[in-house]
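Glycoside-hydrolase family GH114 TIM-barrel domain-containing protein, pasting as requested.
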Amino acid sequence: MKTSKVTAAIIVSMVFFSFPFKKQIQASKPFQNVKDYSLYYGAPTEQAIIQLKTKDLIIIEPQLFSKLQIQDIQTTGTMVIGYISVIETPAWNTLRVKELLSSDYLLKQGERIHFKQWDSYLMDLRQSHYRQLLLSEIKTSISDKGLDGMFLDTVGDIDDWIQDAATQTPTREAYRSFLQDVSGQYPKLSIIQNRGFDTLDYALPYIDGLLWEDWRANWKEDLWMKTRVDRLRKEQKKGLTVFSIHLNKESSPGREARKLKFLHIDAPDGYTKEVN
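C-alpha cells follow.
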C-alpha cells in the first residue's frame, strides 16, 4: 500500500512538471501594473526615447534599437516588448530572409503568397527550420538585448489566410509547439499575441496578453466582435491582459475599450511617425 502511494505521488509530480514552467499566465500577471502603453516601430530618436520612457509598456522593433538604448528606457521602469512577425516574413527583415529555405514559404497553387501592401510573404510555420529561425531571432533581437518580452504579430493570418482545415489545424498545432519552445527557452519573457482570436485555444496558457488591433466601438452590434469580446472577458478573469488599438480619428472606441478594461491607444497616424 505504501509503495502504491509513493508511486502515485511520483506520477503526479511527473505530470505536473511535464508542462512548460512559464505559464500559468494567469498566475504571473506581468502586466497587472501597466496603465498605459505605446506601439512604436519608428527610429530611436532622442525625442522618441524621451517619450517612450514615460510609458509603462512599449512595443518596439528591436532590430532598430541598441542594447544600451533599451537599458536606458528601462531605467524608468518601462517594460520593453520586442516585435516579431510570426506568420509573415517582411522583405525588410534581411537577417531572416537570407536564412530562409524555399520550403519555409507557404505556397498556393505552387506560388508564394505575397502581401504587396506590406511587402511580406506568408510562411509555413509547420516547418521546423522556419520555427528555429524565429527562435534564433528571438534570441538575438529580444533576449540578448535584455527586453522584457515579445509581441507576436501576424498570428491572425492563421485565421484569415490559412482557411483549409488540412493546413490550418496543423499550423495551429505548430504555433502551439513554437510557443512551448519559446516558453521553455525563455521563461522570463512575457508574450503578447496580436489578434488570432480563433487560434487562442492553442496559445493559452503560453501568452500573457492579446492585442486587438483595429478595435472598433460598435462591438455590441457586431456579432463577430461580440462573440470574441465575450471570450476575452472570460480570459481576463483568469489574468489575460487585453490591449486594443484604434486606427482612425474617433474617440468612442477608446471609451468602449476602457469600459471593458482593455488597455487602449489611438494610432490614427500609424506606428512609425511618432510615439502614440
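Note for the archive: Residues 1-22 have pLDDT under 50 and may be disordered.
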